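Hey team,

Filing this mostly as a record. A colleague (T.K.) asked me to run one chain through the structure pipeline before their review meeting, and I want the input and output archived in the tracker in case anyone asks later how it was produced. No errors, nothing strange. Just documentation.

Input sequence:
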Amino acid sequence: MNNIKNLVRPSIAALKGYSSARDEFTGMEGIFLDANENPFGNLNRYPDPYQRQLKKEISQIKNVSEKNLFIGNGSDEIIDITFRVFCEPEKDKAVILTPTYGMYEVSAAINNVALVKVPLTNSFDIDFEATKNAIADTDVKLLILCSPNNPTGNLLDSGLMEQLIKDFNGIVLIDEAYIDFSDAISCNQWLSKFENIVVMQTLSKAYGLASARVGIGYASEEIIEYYNKVKPPYNVSGLNQAAAITALKDTETYLSQKEIIISERHKLSAALDKNPLVFKQYPSVTNFILATVTDAKVIYNALTAQQIIVRNRSQQINNCLRFSVGTPEENAQLINALNKLAQ
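Output structure:
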């Protein structure tokens, strides 16, 4: 395994990051005449560029040192920064296991990084030999693993994931956006074991903060330092940091809503099982269910006409719709609409 500096793009390793006013003075009290802010108003001051209070809250909940945390403007910013730190445009490659989250491909294209797609098995798990062969290419710098996977809803085999990390002479980004809905233990437990991993979570799903755009990255102190050099100085607003802290402190609401979503997922799954329009649904540990249906386009359009919006994933998996778990009332309307379409 190369040390991390050898994996970082030379231009990033040499980069002197922008020093904002709040980098030079981090205190909360004083007469602030350093950042050209408007001295009037309630939202006139720049936020903490390193989200210290938010990291302190996450550190206590996740039992991970604040030094191992990076806060992004949603998980998408963390994906993009990972490409920018480690992948040299027009030279390096990244590997993804398909079908998976579409932003990996978009970020690769934006950063002009060649993308190698390795299909998952028929059960949507890791094809170990095919993936191992793909990452053996010396130009491959980044492997992205999504577990639980979107849009399939299943966890990847953690033993195979661990073996790939051991075998790979590059960076592994592990996307755990939906892990709160599962019983799985986060791969951030591997931070002390592997220096070449970045584990990514979000407050958009189980914590209900999709509008606030708060993503969490777990990595070694060295990787976090590179990410902090590359990110915009104030990448997460003060409003969003405050919203995140409030949500993290409200454990009762988090647990209650998660319990309802999981219960509703089981109810929706049972209803889909009985519906003749559904040929197959795939096991899910997330807040959505992927299902193969008789005619995805026809059913999607029929539901949309009733203002019930689901996701047509047929471009990734033939004739598949992805159903997010809504409120009990929303799920009842979906089930009723599907039952009427089946008549």
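Quick notes for T.K.: The mean pLDDT is 96. The longest helix spans residues 251-274.
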